[in-house]
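Reading group handout, session on sequence-to-structure problems. Before we discuss, look at one worked example. The prompt was deliberately terse, the way you'd type it at a terminal:

> structure MFS transporter

The input record follows.
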Amino acid sequence: MVWLFAIATGLIVANLYYAQTLIGPISKATGLDPGAAGLIVTLTQIGYVLGLLFIVPLGDLLENRRLIFIALLTTALALLAASITGSARLFLFAALCIGIGSVAAQIVVPFAAHLSRPETRGKTVGKVMSGLLMGIMLARPVASLVTDAFGWHAIFVLSALTTAGLAFVLRAKLPLRRPEGGMHYFALLASMWHLLKTTPILRRRAAYQACMFGAFSVFWTCVSLELTGPYFGISQSGVAIFALVGVTGALVSPIAGHRADQGKSRSTTLVALTLGALAFALPLLVHSSRLVDLGLLVLASIILDMGVSANLVTGQRAIFALPAEVRSRLNGLYMALFFMGGAIGSSLGGWMFAAHGWTGVLWTGLAFPLIALCIFATE
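And the output record:
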């Protein structure tokens, strides 16, 4: 079941990131202005935040398997719409809907935590989140490779078919999970504000991850534009290989989860936030030949993904240690808050790249983990 959860979350959340390395070709095909290209990623993340706030809480109210099934079919339809449109407005609307439907992944994660024993919950969540992070990171190289071979439309068609197939597999394999409920939907939503006010660990962990995910989005929204630009001149296949190397950063997730189970969350958080800052400081401080600069970018991508992965799992371990009857709402709030950071990062990144180039992007990215370290200093 852990393997199924890990693969499912990876496949679902990958839908948010296929467009990240394809901003250039999608913008040209739909006539989107280069300065607004970051909207492709930003609107997907905004859709995800809306889903986290208004759909994921239903995991504490409705039967979970049916909720996952409906969300996945919605995502498949939005992906199909994105693949056939030539209009910028319609593509951006489809991107918003892809984000909303992809919150099925965040109904699956509390499902896994619910089925786990308390003493191994962090390790289980770490394994499932490894699948989710592998999905995020593999989405970029897969999208680049498929685009090089068949055009950018193909990845959205392929993903629509995969997501629809996954919906039926999960409906067949997942056990029924019917929460106790006893609360109306609007009362459920109102309770989220109360949970946010009365759960300081949620606010703190969400602030850390919002900064880390903002940095992550700044980097990965713009790095493909830099790599395919005049200085590096790399093809989409080269971008795919670059992104594939960054996937190794996700391997730290189970280690971070295990350390959190041992009560070492604070030291793990400090290391994760420091790695986030280091990822942007390295290419800013060291300038050399084209090959060395490319090597530094590869190293920065691995370090950044390690920091983001470790911090995410450590945060979720803390959230899932809280009462089971509010777990879906807490997870929804946690993910929504840090995805807001991601949306800010992707929109800022696109604008900074257009206005100030790659150096402006690196300084913007560095600001996010530095803010998180300042917050951490008050812990």
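Points for discussion. First: Residues 327-376 form the longest helix (50 residues). Second: The mean pLDDT is 86.
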